[in-house]
Design a protein that fits this description.
Helix 20 packs parallel to helix 21. The strands form two sheets. The protein has a seven-stranded mixed beta sheet, sandwiched between helices. Strands 1-2 form a two-stranded antiparallel ribbon. It contains 25 helices and nine strands. Strand 7, helix 22 and strand 8 form a beta-alpha-beta unit. By secondary structure, it is of the alpha/beta class.
C-alpha cells in the first residue's frame, strides 16, 4: 500500500489498488496477504501507515465480508500467526478496526447479523482456548481484547470445552491462578473483571502492592468496591506510599475515612515542593489551612528561607513562629556556603546604561568570569517560560547583576553591544553550569538581540566531571566542602527590588564557578578524588558569522597556552 496522501483520500470501500467493493468471494487468507503487501510497500512512516490501514479495514468491513464482519474478523485472527512478525501488529489493527466498525454501525437487528455475532463469539471462545493452550501464539493483551471484542462469556467457554470434563469456571480459575503465580497481574485482573470473579481475596491485593503493580492493584480494588479501596489505602499508608494513597483517596472520595493519613499525604506533598524550591505552588496547595501553613513555615525555616517565613507569618497572622526562626538561623548558616566565604568584595546591581558600560569595561579586563541567569518560574501547565529576568556576570572579587528586563526596555541596542563584547570575547574564559541551556532561554526571551546567538570561549563546568554531582550545589559541596542553599531558585525574580538574600543567591552562583574552576585547573585529570577530564577540551563556541571567526588569533580552545589561565583574576 503506497498510502500516500492521494490514497488516503480515495473513495470509501477501497484498499490500495484492489477494489473491495464486494468481499463476498474474498477469503480471509487472501485479504490478509493483500494487507501485508499494502504494509510492506507503503511509503509513509510506520505509525501513519498503521492508522491509514486501520481506516481502510474499517471501511471494507462494511463491504459484505462472508459470513459477516465479526466472523470474518475471527477467521483473520486465527490465520494471522501464519504471517510471522506481522501477526501481532495486524491483530491489534484488525480488532481496533472492528471496534470502530461496531461504533459506526447500528446494533444487530436482522437474523443474519445476530447469527454473525453468535458465530464469532463461539469461534472467539475456541481461539481463546487455543491461545491459553499455546497452539496459537498471541500475547495476553490480544487474548483479553478478543474476549472483550466478541463478548465471550462463561457460556461460550463451556461450549468450547464440551469435549472436556472441566467447567468454564474451574478452567478459568485454574488459569487465572497460574497468571497470578507468574505475576501477570494486569491480565489476571482483566479476566477476573470480564468474567466477574472475585476468588483471589485480600492477599491478591497485597501481593500486587508488594510487587509494585499499582495500576493492577487499583483496578482490582475499584472493581471490588469501597471496602477494597479502603484496604488498598491502608496498604499504601502502612508502606509510607503517601502519593499513591492520596491519589486513591482523592479519586474515590475517601478523604473523610482517613483524615490523619490525608493530612500526612498533604504534608509530604508540601515537603516535595519545598525541596524543589516551588514555594508559591506549595503555598497554593496549602489552601489557607493553618496547620499546613505552619508546616510550610517550618520547612522554610529549615531551608533558611527567612523572607518566605516572614512573608507567610505576616500574610496569615502566624504569631509566635518568628521566634522559632531565630533558633534555626545559626544552624542553617553553618550548613551552606555564603558569599563572604568566597571573599567577594562587591555585588553591583546594574539597571541603567552608565552602570552597564562600567560593568562591560571591567569584565573585558578579566581573564575568567562566571555566568548565570535567573527567571521567574511559571507553573501554568503548557504555558511559555517567563523572560529571563537577571544575568549575573563577575570575577572572583566583583559580581554584576544585570536587570535584563529594564535594560532591554530602556536601551536594547546598548545592551546588545555590551553583552556581545563579553560573550563573544576570545580573550575571556566564560564559566557556566549548564549555561548552554540558559543561553537558549536568553535567545528565546530576547529574540531580536544578536548577543545571545553567538558566544566564544565558554566552559560548562559540569562537563569537566565524569560523574554527575547533584547539580551545582552538589558539585560545590564536593569541591569546597559545603553546598549552596538553593531554596530561592524558584522565587520571584521579577520583583523589584530583589531582596538581599536573592542578590546573594544570584551572586554566589556566578562567584562559586570561578572557585570550582581553580580546583579543576590546579588538579591534574588523573587525580581520582575529583574525577575530572581535560578541561580545555570542553571549551566551546558558537559563532553565527563564520567570517568573524577568521580574525581570531591561533590560540583558541584546546590550543590555548597553559599560562593564559594560570591566575584567574579581575585585573
Amino acid at each position: 500500500m503506497g498510502l500516500d496522501h492521494e490514497e488516503a483520500e480515495s473513495p470509501p470501500g477501497t484498499l490500495c489498488l484492489h477494489a473491495f467493493s464486494d468481499l463476498t468471494h474474498v477469503p480471509p487468507l487472501v485479504f490478509l496477504y493483500l494487507l501485508k503487501q499494502c504494509y510492506t510497500h507503503g511509503s509513509l512512516k510506520a505509525t501513519k501507515k498503521f492508522q491509514a490501514l486501520q481506516h481502510r479495514v474499517h471501511q471494507v468491513l462494511a463491504n459484505n465480508p462472508q459470513p459477516g464482519p465479526s466472523t470474518f474478523t475471527v477467521h483473520c485472527l486465527n490465520l494471522l500467526p501464519l504471517f510471522g512478525v506481522y501477526g501481532e501488529g495486524f491483530s491489534h489493527l484488525i480488532i481496533s478496526a472492528l471496534r470502530r466498525y461496531f461504533k459506526s454501525a447500528s446494533p444487530p437487528s436482522t437474523t443474519s447479523q445476530e447469527q454473525d455475532a453468535a458465530s464469532a463469539r463461539s469461534l472467539a471462545a475456541r481461539l481463546f482456548l487455543a491461545i491459553v493452550g499455546g497452539t496459537v501464539p498471541y500475547d495476553e493483551k490480544v487474548m483479553v481484547n478478543i474476549l472483550k471484542m466478541f463478548d465471550v462469556g462463561l457460556t461460550s467457554i463451556d461450549e468450547a470445552l464440551s469435549a472436556s470434563s472441566a467447567s468454564a469456571s474451574a478452567f478459568l480459575e485454574e488459569y487465572i491462578s497460574e497468571l497470578i503465580k507468574s505475576k501477570s497481574f494486569m491480565t489476571a485482573v482483566s479476566l477476573l473483571e470480564h468474567f466477574s470473579f472475585s476468588f483471589p481475596g485480600e492477599t491478591f491485593l497485597q501481593q500486587m502492592v508488594e510487587d509494585k503493580d499499582f495500576q493492577a492493584a487499583e483496578r482490582w480494588a475499584t472493581f471490588l468496591g469501597r471496602p477494597s479501596l479502603c484496604l488498598l489505602v491502608q496498604e499504601y499508608g502502612s508502606r509510607n506510599m503517601l502519593k499513591q494513597a492520596y491519589n486513591v483517596m482523592k479519586k474515590n472520595y475517601l478523604q473523610h475515612e482517613f483524615p490523619e493519613l490525608c493530612y500526612k499525604c498533604k504534608e509530604s506533598a508540601l515537603k516535595d515542593l519545598a525541596e524543589k524550591a516551588c514555594w508559591d505552588v506549595a503555598e497554593t496547595k496549602a489552601k489557607g489551612d493553618r496547620q499546613l501553613l505552619e508546616y510550610l513555615v517550618y520547612l522554610a525555616m529549615e531551608a533558611g528561607y527567612y523572607e518566605k517565613v516572614n512573608e507567610l507569618c505576616k500574610r496569615y497572622s502566624l504569631e509566635g513562629l518568628p521566634k522559632a526562626q531565630e533558633a534555626e538561623v545559626d544552624f542553617v548558616n553553618k550548613c551552606f556556603l555564603h558569599l563572604k566565604d568566597l571573599a567577594v568584595e562587591e555585588v553591583v546591581w546594574v539597571d541603567e546604561v552608565n552602570g552597564l558600560r562600567e560593568a562591560t569595561s571591567f569584565l573585558e579586563g578579566c581573564k575568567v568570569v562566571g555566568l548565570d541567569c535567573e527567571w521567574k518560574p511559571n507553573y501554568m501547565k503548557g504555558s511559555k517560560p517567563n523572560k529571563v529576568s537577571i544575568m549575573q556576570i563577575g570575577s572572583d572579587s566583583k559580581i554584576f547583576i544585570l536587570d535584563l528586563i529594564k535594560l532591554y526596555d530602556d536601551a536594547s541596542e546598548i545592551l546588545d553591544t555590551c553583552l556581545g563584547q563579553i560573550l563573544q570575547s576570545y580573550s575571556t574564559l566564560k564559566l557556566g553550569y549548564n549555561f548552554q541551556c540558559d543561553i537558549k532561554q536568553l535567545a528565546v526571551s530576547y529574540g531580536d538581540l544578536k548577543c545571545f546567538k553567538s558566544y566564544d570561549m565558554l566552559l560548562d563546568i559540569q562537563n569537566v566531571f565524569k560523574e554527575p554531582c547533584g547539580g551545582l550545589s552538589g558539585l560545590t559541596k564536593k569541591i569546597l566542602g559545603v553546598g549552596l542553599n538553593k531554596t530561592r531558585r524558584n522565587s520571584d525574580w521579577e520583583q523589584r527590588p530583589l531582596t538581599q538574600n536573592q542578590l546573594e543567591y544570584a551572586a554566589l552562583d556566578a562567584a562559586v564557578l570561578i572557585h570550582i574552576f581553580r580546583h579543576v585547573r590546579d588538579h591534574p585529570p588523573h587525580d581520582t578524588t575529583l574525577e575530572t577530564v581535560q578541561w580545555k577540551s570542553h571549551i566551546v563556541s558558537h559563532m553565527d558569522n563564520p567570517k568573524k571567526s577568521k580574525k581570531k588569533p591561533k590560540c583558541h580552545s584546546t590550543q590555548t597556552s597553559d599560562s593564559t589561565f594560570t591566575k584567574p583574576s579581575s585585573s
